[in-house]
Amino acid sequence: MTPLLWPTDSPPLFTGLLVEPEEARSILRPQKDERYGFGFALSPYRGCGHGCRYCYVREYPNALHKPEDWGGWVAPKLNAPELLWSQRHKLHGARVFMASATDPYQPLERQYRLSRRCLEVLLLCPTTEVIVHTRSPLVLQDLDLLRAFGDRLSVGLSIPTDDDTVRQIVEPHAPAIPSRWAAAERLAAAGIEVTIGVAPLMAVHDAKAFARRAKACGASNAWVGGLRLLKQDPFYKVLADHGWLKVLDPDYKEGIRQAFQEVFPTRHLGRTPKASLPAPPAAEYPRQPGLFDRVS
């Protein structure tokens, strides 16, 4: 395995973020999801530079930061790839979700490349399936690596609204909605299975057009997820001030879900069959013995 490299002279602030590199004690979190049924969640970072104002991860216990500090700090787990390599025996036949508590392609990934290095480890585990979930077109910087997984990997793109003016209020530091559609199109064109996650559901201008746009970008699946508010969450006032409390109404969510159901009539709980992709160039990804390969 390639030794992990990381910036040793990086400034304490990165694009307005307090960066607090750390050595993690664990990297695979057992998890069960009704939709994906994955076995482990993998988060190469703690904290998230996107700082979405509604993010439920704000409430996670943290001795150094308060929920209102969310988006202002990120802790890269410097040893994440090595730790994952040491725990790869757990991954036989498992599904890994990257990531549940952070965005693996937040801006800091440009510098630390921890998500890519973790994916390089997972590539060497041939019976492991991977779901990458992000709201950033930065995922395209690893397009070559993602394709190398073949049908073992899919990418979910979070697009919680069809209106970028809504995004600017609820996700002020996250990539614009048009750039996410463009990323979905490039991923799908490369033969990668793409899912559009309308989650957490925000105010939608035209649900039917939104669903058609998701289909047109090449996505094979889409799902609608509700908002999870914290106790006495200040985000409630944001919704109230902008007249968006409807997103908390189950009937509103059901209406959006039905619009997507018309366009994506079959909800795939497992893998969606896809055409075989050409193998990556041998010089770029030399075949290495996988963890579960039989040695003669």
What fraction strand?
A: 5-15%
CATH architecture heading: Alpha-Beta Barrel
Question: Averaging pLDDT over every residue, what do you get?
Answer: 85
Q: How many independent structural domains? A: 1
Q: How many helical elements?
A: 9
Measured distance between first and last alpha carbons: 22 Å
Shape: globular
Rg, Cα atoms, Å: 19 Å
Largest sheet: 7 strands, mixed
Under CATH at level 1, the class stands as Alpha Beta
Following the backbone from N to C, one meets helices and strands in this order, namely EEEEEEHEHHEHEHHEHEHH
Under CATH, the homologous superfamily reads Aldolase class I
Helicity, as a percent range: 25-40%
- Structural class call reads alpha/beta
Biggest sheet: strand arrangement: 3-4-7-8-9-10-11
Explain how this protein is built:
The protein is an alpha/beta fold. The chain has one domain: TIM Barrel, CATH 3.20.20.70. Helices cover 26% and strands 15% of the residues. Strands 3-4-7-8-9-10-11 form a 7-stranded mixed beta sheet. The chain has a 4-stranded mixed beta sheet with strand order 1-2-6-5, with no helix packed on it. Strand 8, helix 4 and strand 9 form a beta-alpha-beta unit. Helix 1 runs parallel beside helix 3 and helix 7 packs parallel to helix 9. The longest helix has 14 residues. The protein starts with 12 loop residues before the first strand and ends in a 33-residue tail after the last helix. The N terminus and C terminus are likely disordered.
How does the SSE layout of this entry go?
Layout: E1 13-14, E2 17-19, E3 28-30, E4 40-42, E5 45-47, E6 73-76, H1 80-86, E7 95-98, H2 109-112, H3 114-123, E8 129-134, H4 143-148, E9 153-158, H5 164-170, H6 177-189, E10 193-198, H7 207-216, E11 221-224, H8 235-241, H9 250-263
Parallel strand pairs: 2-6, 4-7, 7-8, 8-9, 9-10, 10-11
Antiparallel strand pairs: 1-2, 3-4, 5-6
